Amino acid sequence: MRQLGAAGATEEAFRFQMSNVQTWMSAALTDEETCTDGFQDVADGEVKAAVYARAAEAKKYTSNALALVNTYAAAGTP
């Protein structure tokens, strides 16, 4: 994001890049949900619990990062 500002990005270029970032991060959240869907039929155990815990952790960080990007994008050009 700093690179956009340092490169003198136009408002149009900034919005385009932010839209791309938001799209990719939203897709990552969806993928994290899909990851655990495949384990619904797996018996409870250590492996299943570990996968669910790691996916939940990744989802938390991705969600927080997306919220920061959304706030930054809403503020306008860098």
From TrEMBL:
Belongs to the PMEI family. Keywords: Signal. One of its GO terms (molecular function) is enzyme inhibitor activity. This is Pectinesterase inhibitor domain-containing protein. It comes from the Eukaryota. The keyword Chloroplast does not apply. Residues 11-68 form the Pectinesterase inhibitor domain. The keyword Signal applies. InterPro entries: Invertase/methylesterase_inhib, Pectinesterase_inhib_dom, PME_Inhibitor. It comes from Linum tenue.
